[in-house]
Specification:
It is built from ten helices and nine strands. Strand 1 (49-54) and strand 2 form a beta hairpin. It has a five-stranded antiparallel β-sheet with strand order 2-1-5-4-3, with helices on both faces. Strands 6-9 form a two-stranded parallel sheet. A two-stranded antiparallel sheet has the order 7-8. It is globular, with a radius of gyration of 20 Å. Helix 1 (6-26) packs parallel to helix 7 (184-206). The protein is of the alpha+beta class and 280 residues long. It is 39% helix and 18% strand.
Length: 280
């Protein structure tokens, strides 16, 4: 399996959940924070490719991704069915656009937990897509599927809905060329992460910060414990040093997070696990 095993699995999931929660709670930039969420999930799962789709103008294009080729993203960017004139098609008797493929199934709730590849939480997951396609019909899979993931050699695929109060806002997609990367416990953990992301998206809709690029402003993440400032995903410096290196800007907006050195203060067990790892 792609996840950590035994006690390390629970510890890894707990640590990852806390990191994701803190990042989404304190960030003012949705794209940046979701990019970090993907990195945290990739580190936990060891999955090759991961992405998040979010609602936009009736469709659900990729919002952030890592590990997929640009060709794959361009080919699979949009889910809406189009007629011969290129016009997007609506679902029968519904005021919403018709979405195709398995991603469309998950977003629209076209899942049946009686089949082993659908969870009770409305996710799709498969550890051997070639075998799945050979042994199921389109009726079993709830819709006509493009099967592009399988044609690209991805055998393990998971699609996790991002929801808030019953509304589906997008999905998390995890793909790997290896067979057998998921189990049901892992899918249920990812569904919980999808709910956390959904809450963040709703909060962002309720409060829209200014367009920082347009106004030439800057968002600075400051560690809640040691007050160091984040200059990259891997580097944090003292707040004094930070202000001696930045160029003049109109305004600075501060968000809060936890730097790697202070993370054990939030999760003492994490420090012990890292010490054991370093002694191996």
């Amino acid at each position: 399996m792609g996840f950590l095993c035994d006690d390390n699995n629970a510890l890894g999931e707990t640590k990852t959940t806390r990191m994701i929660y803190l990042e989404l709670k304190n960030s003012c930039n949705l794209e940046h924070s979701l990019t970090l969420v993907l990195k945290y999930l990739q580190q936990l799962t060891t999955i090759e490719a991961i992405s998040i789709r979010l609602h936009e103008d009736g469709d659900f294009p990729y919002f952030v991704y890592n590990g997929f080729t640009k060709e794959f993203i361009q080919h699979e960017m949009y889910l809406c069915v189009k007629d011969f004139s290129g016009k997007r098609v609506k679902e029968h008797d519904k005021n919403q656009l018709l979405l195709e493929c398995m991603c469309g199934n998950v977003i629209r709730g076209r899942t049946n937990p009686e089949f082993p590849f659908f969870s009770k939480g409305g996710s799709f997951w498969a550890n051997h897509t070639t075998e799945l396609l050979a042994n199921t019909t389109e009726a079993d899979r709830q819709a006509s599927t493009r099967n592009y993931c399988n044609r690209c050699g991805f055998e393990s695929v998971a699609l996790i809905p991002i929801r808030n109060e019953g509304n589906t806002l997008g999905l998390i997609q995890l793909n790997d060329h290896r067979i057998g990367m998921f189990d049901l416990d892992q899918i249920e953990f990812l569904e919980m992460i999808g709910d956390i992301i959904g809450s963040k998206i709703i909060r962002d809709k309720e409060f829209h910060p200014p367009n920082f690029k347009e106004f030439n402003d800057l968002i600075v993440t400051v560690c809640s414990f040691c007050r160091s400032a984040k200059v990259s995903d891997m580097e944090w410096v003292s707040i004094e040093k930070f202000f001696t290196t930045v160029e003049k800007i109109d305004k600075i907006y501060f968000s809060h997070g936890v730097c790697p050195n202070c993370l054990p203060l939030l999760d003492p067990e994490y420090q012990g696990s890292m010490e054991k790892k370093n002694h191996k």
